[in-house]
């Protein structure tokens, strides 16, 4: 159908609604969210791989349009959490990337080989590795956050939910956009350029690019100590550049066929990007064995000292000893739609993804002398996927979606653990590479049947078969030497069914109930060099449960109120844990170590007062009760006594041969990044102030109660409120000038913390799982910090 490739417009001022029930006749292709009729109050989403209104789809979802994203300067995934209750994101180091959680369900293992429990979907391409979360937040048409398991339509890596991102499509008329912004706190400069429009009646193109450069938000006032192998660093963390380029082509040659092609290139190159701040120092910050490794106030503030490493003390270290992260991502999707009839469409979605990441960190996270070790890695992931589906849009009571999915993935992590020769360590302590190959196929289908016009039953399932094998090599000698592992291959078959019942007695009231199963693939740990005979595999993570909900439109559709409840049980949770290798050495790996359950309520409201035109009010609230009902073999924190709970997995080689326990039972604690309460509330008010002038004032506020961010030491991120606001002056949609404040009250937060022997520089002296503590006392806790306050000025020109 000509003109079908409309742009992904925004539906301003509307935050996603919790909804249910399908349209009487759904559009099956292309699967791209678009606005409904102007002023209809409807947003179209693709939660079931067909276009449906958010009011009608039986999935708990939040949808945010491109205009709202621009108004609030939401340009990365961490900013997205400020407008989606229940979404939390944590930072990490090396190539692990962002760790995402929805309703407290997420990934805690610091390993780039682990799939995220919350997957990312960009223009139909499924991604589950944390680096991808930095790839797509630019020129976005609409974002859909689908909560709860989504295995039926979004595959094998979404037991916690899906963040589905739809980038903007070419427009029907020529459009040229230029945008420039400056942020004062991190001294960030950013420019954007977009050109879009038709080249012919059937061919449309959109080209978009953005380039940014910043000095970094956090100060780095560390002073190096040459005798301990450290160098005084630059004065700020996070300096560097990034760019994103995207080309979109729409081809609509006939009533029978249309195609959409997306090509992307993303680059991030930053120094000191893993901003670790010491927040808990039980033994103080004084010297250890006469050596000063920590020199900080050990509290949450804007100063996060971290030294560079002296190449003379760490022979062979890269990037002149300055911790850094360089990541290049190239990916694209091709969607082809063939319409046998207006009611029957065959869709092919082909995707390719390539990521290359290089990193180096001060592994001891020291702020005076350099610690004992450094960590350098080179990570690559190649992924090819193909999905074919056939969907109907009949006027009869029965409709269906049938499909198949193929994945071929290869990733490797080349890791070097370097040593500080000034502390007597060898220049290279460990060095090795692990390569994992993934082959997966799945079949899925859903049948939708209208029992009566107001009541629909939907039932479906996805079957998946997956094989993974690992090829490990020790490369410390310079020549790769194959390492035989206990489990070099894993295979799993899984069936994930889903059923929902939707009742829509009127166009302004919808009720639904659903039951689901989901899972996430097992894999191999790749973040450490291999050891002969070790078993570093882990199995699938599984979930089952359900949701009920309602959505209503009241007061002549000026008030929208939605409510949903959910209950899920998880088994085989993939978490970091301590085990003993065949050599008797205790190592940290990802294991299927426990069970969990979470249940809660979500409510959302939008209101447009009749007497104040242009004013939109919104509020959303999530109450979430979650805990690990069984969580064994969590690593002890350094210096933890046996009587303090470190009483599992005794190792005779622990504590330099003295022996000791290495793990603990953490059953009963909350899930990581799972606040009991989270909310966001705000408004937008737009009014004309002259014949050609418009003024927009918008506010968004995020609240989170305290949440657990470290399993071993049990450290909580305190509760907080972050306030955002924007004031924008527009002139006839030709140009605009905006003042934007994000986190105006400058709350410094973290979604991920870790404990280690920072005061001792990881040089030893820690005794764990015994009856006494060692000379190094107890581990310190450091947190991977989120960006603080942002104050933007931004100008936009449109033609």
From TrEMBL:
Transmembrane segments: none annotated. It is a multi-pass membrane protein. Pfam families: Plug (PF07715), TonB_dep_Rec_b-barrel (PF00593). Residues 54-162 form the TonB-dependent receptor plug domain. Keywords: Cell outer membrane, Ion transport, Iron, Iron transport, Membrane, Receptor, Signal, TonB box, Transmembrane, Transmembrane beta strand, Transport. It comes from the Bacteria. Residues 1-25 form the signal peptide. It is found in: Cell outer membrane. Residues 320-743 form the TonB-dependent receptor-like beta-barrel domain. The keyword Transport applies. The keyword Transmembrane helix does not apply. Belongs to the TonB-dependent receptor family. This is TonB-dependent receptor. It comes from Sphingomonas naphthae.
